Each structure stands twice: as structure tokens, then as C-alpha cells.
Amino acid sequence: MLHFILTWLGAAIALIITSRFVPGFNVDSFTAALIGAAIMGLVNAIVRPILILLTLPLTIVTLGLFLLVINAIAFCLVVAFTPGLSITGFFAALIASIVLTIVSTLISLVLRIFD
């Protein structure tokens, strides 16, 4: 249970850090980041695999680069369903999804040290 809570807090902190680096992406409060992290988990568990399956031929043709677009679409869905998160456009979502992946990876590496 502690691992789940630490992962959730790490995802919320990653959202806040991402909002500091990406112009056009804003997080209003830590509560909004916590809600966004929970919705991000649901979108990544349910919607993203369906999108990947439906766009598999395009992903193969682009040698996997279309997965960046799928990540940006998933990120836009998270922002659309989370009050307190806002983004200006698709390009900002694309950059934010890349930065969020990097920041989340670094935070998960730090959390593994304490786990």
C-alpha cells in the first residue's frame, strides 16, 4: 500500500515539475496534480492500450514514432478530465508528455532507492 501511495505522489510531483518546464501547461494546485495523477493512471491503464492496438499499423510504419502522438493524446485526455490542469495545444501536450516521461522515470528511480 505504501508503494502505491509513493507512486501516486511521485506522479503528482512529476506533473508539477513538468508544468514548470513546459510553457503552455499549467497545474493550479497540488490537489489538481493528485487528481491528474489518478486520472493519468486510469487513462494509461484503459484508454492508451486501446489506442495503441487501433493504431498498430501506423505505429509499425512509423517505426514507433506514432507512440509519441498517442502519448500526447492520452495527456490531452488527462488534462480534459482534470479540473485545475490546462494546456494550450497539441504541440504543448506532445512536449509535456515527453518531459513527463523523463521526469517520471527519474522520480521512480529515486523512489526505488527508498523502497
Secondary structure elements and pairings:
Layout: H1 2-21, E1 25-27, H2 30-54, H3 56-61, H4 66-81, E2 85-87, H5 90-114
Antiparallel strand pairs: 1-2
Helix pairs in contact: 1-2, 1-5, 2-4, 4-5
Describe this structure in words.
By secondary structure, this protein is mainly alpha-helical. The chain has one domain. 80% of the residues lie in helices and 5% in strands. The chain has 5 helices and 2 strands; from the N terminus they run H-E-H-H-H-E-H. It has helices spanning 2-21, 30-54, 56-61, 66-81, 90-114; strands spanning 25-27, 85-87. Strands 1-2 form a two-stranded antiparallel ribbon. Helix 1 crosses helix 5. The longest helix is centred in the middle third of the chain and has 25 residues, at 30-54. The protein starts with a helix and ends with a helix. The model has no long low-confidence stretch (mean pLDDT 94).
Which features would summarize this protein structure in a list?
single chain; 115 residues; mainly alpha; 5% strand
Uncertain residue ranges: none
Number of strands: 2
Mean pLDDT: 94
% residues in beta strands: 5-15%
Helical segment count? 5
Total domain modules:
1
Strand order of the largest sheet: 1-2
Largest sheet: 2 strands, antiparallel
Helix content: over 70%
* Whole-angstrom Rg: 14 Å
Q: Helix and strand succession?
A: HEHHHEH
Q: Which of globular, elongated, flat, extended, rod-shaped describes the shape?
A: globular
Structural class, from secondary structure content?
mainly alpha
Distance between the termini: 12 Å
